[in-house]
Design brief:
This protein has no helices and eleven strands. It is mainly beta. The chain starts with a strand and ends with a strand.
């Protein structure tokens, strides 16, 4: 199966932007639907965005529509999350995840491989 490593997190002021990357190694990256999730302190992990494996069809949580964009480059085995107009409530550890089954999903429990995450902190 794939192994996932996130990068690109950091500290940014409200209204700023960050681009997260998730590099995959191992088995064929294009065989996996990919998702981004986040977990803030004291809260459960929640869905942010996902992208299908071949057609690259995106799904978004309502709270990021119009601000975040998910994309993938199967040639580079990498999925990206471009985050614009960041808000303090976007502060969380962001993790990417891979799902090898037939359909794309928003559910945490449907993803089988996880990266360790990258911290995003948005100051007000």
């Amino acid at each position: 199966q794939v192994q996932l490593v996130e990068s690109g997190g950091g500290l940014v002021q409200a209204g700023g932007s960050l681009r997260l990357s998730c590099a995959a190694s191992g088995r064929t990256f294009s065989a996996y639907h990919m998702g981004w999730f986040r977990q803030a302190p004291g809260k459960e992990r929640e869905f942010v965005a996902a992208i299908s494996r071949i057609a690259a069809i995106p799904l978004y949580a309502e709270f990021v529509k119009g601000r975040f964009t998910i994309s993938r480059d199967n040639g580079k085995n990498t999925v990206y999350l471009q985050m614009n107009s960041l808000k303090p409530e976007d502060t969380a550890v962001y993790s990417c995840a891979a799902r090898g089954l037939d359909y794309i999903s928003r559910s945490v429990n449907d993803y089988h491989v996880w990266g360790r995450g990258t911290q995003v902190t948005v100051s007000s």
